[in-house]
Amino acid sequence: MWQAVATDKLDLMLSAWLPGTHGEYYAKYKDQVVNYGPNFKDAKIGLIVPEYVKAKSIEDLKTDTSFNKKITGIDAGSGVMLKTDQAIKDYGLDGYKLQASSGAGMIAELTRAEKAQKAIVVTGWVPHWMFAKWKLRFLDDPKGVYGAAETVDNVGSLSLEKKAPDVVAFLKKFQWASKDEIGEVMLAIQDGAKPEAAARDWVAKHPDRVAEWTDK
């Protein structure tokens, strides 16, 4: 995606995680793209639990037996999985197993746990629609294994401003206010709505927010 924007094959991407996750790509292509600023702040990865569990910190997993020493993960080799392997070591979570799965597999496990109100800890990130569906929170990470929060930026091609100045003006102002706001759209798409329809519906319901981005 970075290469496509840098070579003008794509006009824009709205999913550049900076400064960490995509930092290597940005360093490589920064002279061939334009960063129009964040559309979402406080993006992060980590270990996530339902609000109803007692654990507040990753450190609590050492003594909380309700999780059966299992962390439900996503695809093996993904960034959050590699960080979780490190967290198990750094926090001394002896006996804990990181169960590799997929994004869909993790959600299936979380769905079952939520229905039964059972303890579960999963690997995840925000923004994600699951925060709009359930009451979830990150476990505190006092050792900073998962790194600091990032921003999700709007990154365009060098030619975009000339081709679509109105779009660029919008991009400079467009920013989601919270994970709940963006989660509303993401959940609608997850529930079967086409992205275009979900976006139109959100725009119709939130004219004041849209006006902040468009001056109209």
From TrEMBL:
SUPFAM superfamilies: Periplasmic binding protein-like II (SSF53850). Keywords: Cell membrane, Membrane, Transport. The keyword Endoplasmic reticulum does not apply. Signal peptide: none annotated. It comes from the Bacteria. One of its GO terms (cellular component) is ATP-binding cassette (ABC) transporter complex. It is found in: Cell membrane. The keyword Transport applies. GO terms for biological process: choline transport; glycine betaine transport. GO terms for molecular function: amine transmembrane transporter activity; carnitine transmembrane transporter activity. Pfam families: OpuAC. Residues 1-205 form the ABC-type glycine betaine transport system substrate-binding domain. This is Glycine betaine-binding protein. It comes from Pseudomonas cannabina. The lineage of its organism: Bacteria, Pseudomonadati, Pseudomonadota, Gammaproteobacteria, Pseudomonadales.
